[in-house]
Amino acid sequence: MENISDATKQFIDLRRHMWMASIDLDLRRLIWQIAVTGKYIYSKIQESNRKLAGHENIYGEEQLALDMSSDEIIKRQLEFSGFVSHYASEERDSIVQVGKGGEKYIVTADPLDGSSLVDANLSIGTIIGIHRSSILEGGGKSLVAAMSIVYGPLITMIYSAGNGTHEFVLNREGEYVLSGENITLQERGNILGAGGLRRDWTPAHLEYIQHLEDKGYKLRYSGAFISDINHILIKRGGVFTYPALKKSPNGKLRLIFELQPMAFLMEQAGGMATDGRQGILSIKPESLDQRCPIYIGSKYEVKKAKTFLDGNTTTM
Ligand code: FDP
After folding, report:
1. 195 close to ligand 1 (CB < 6 Angstrom)
2. Test site for ligand 1: of 52, 59, 70, 113, most ligand atoms within 8 A of the Cβ
3. Which of the ends of the chain has fewer CB neighbours closer than 10 A, N or C?
4. Euclidean distance between CA atoms 264 and 287, whole angstroms
């Protein structure tokens, strides 16, 4: 699609944008239905009294009532969509059938990433992956679209269906209107988000971070993966990492629910995402709850990470 002028953008809503981009009809209906769940989830956040529900998810983490209600909102929407056969969520221990059989898509969700920040009133969000075939067999390769809905001072939604990465803002009328057409990262940015404790980092990773700090990269780590990636996309560059740690070589973040959908958005915006060596989208998950180290952002910094991890450091 041609680049759209600022004056015209405010009149282009999500459905029109997807129609202009010639996205498959069922896929654009599905993306729109999921975008709508963002409004319901945000209402729940507003209603909530920020109390813990006293449950644990399959990873032994405490679940907020909000995590569970967000998950339920998405599941219910998918049951009525008519386009989705199965749903996999970070809040569930197995894939659930939501269709009658034969539907085209499988949807994954991290229903409320960063939910532990609700009480601090920081930005959090919903991460969605839309797959065409089995998630485990296809992995990142079966992704046909990804979405990221951020609940912050504004509600924003970023999607890609393999047609670039685009941002929309929910306006007062409840419509998602175009705010960023074809987000494109610069080759190199100047912000850095690095998860895990410094004392648990490997020597190579520590050297990499020190190198970026010495080069003047500014620290930007909120504690919500979705918001930190949003930051890099909107500022058009930088790098986020949650690396392999000495005691947990697979890092912390989840490949299917968090990393692959955000890697899809990042790559479509001209950025990169690797586990330090191979591309995140080329990794075939062995289990639903697989975790994986991540280096994601503009190409220069992500490629640089590999040189440090391989022990081939060079000056920038
Ligand atoms: P959270 O534990 O709050 O769910 O998904 C895991 C995640 O948040 C990411 O959103 C975030 O980047 C990371 O964990 C934060 O981990 P640390 O507390 O170790 O910094």
Report:
1. yes
2. 113
3. C
4. 19
**CB-ligand 1 contact for 223 (6 Å cutoff):** yes
How far apart CA 53 and CA 289 sit, in angstroms, is: 22
Question: What's the 102 CA to ligand 1 centre distance in angstroms?
Answer: 35
Considering only CA atoms, which residue is closest to atom 2 of ligand 1?
Answer: 114
Identify the three-state secondary structure at position 47. helix
| Cβ of 113 less than 6 Å from ligand 1 | yes
CA of 222 from ligand 1 middle (Å) equals 9
- Tell me which residues of the chain have a pLDDT lower than 70: 1-10, 49-64, 314-316
Q: What's the confidence (pLDDT) of residue 62?
A: 53
Q: Find all residues with CB under 8 Å of 49, minimum gap 6, and list them.
A: none
Nearest ligand 1 atom to alpha carbon 254: 5
* Architecture of the structural domain at 191-309: 3-Layer(aba) Sandwich (3.40)
Give the pLDDT confidence of 243-294 residue by residue, as tens digits: 999 999 999 999 999 999 999 999 999 999 999 999 999 999 999 999 999 9
Distance separating alpha carbons of residues 206 and 221, to the nearest angstrom: 16
Q: For the chain, which residues make up each domain, given as ranges?
A: 6-180, 191-309
Rounded to two decimals, what is the model's pTM? 0.94
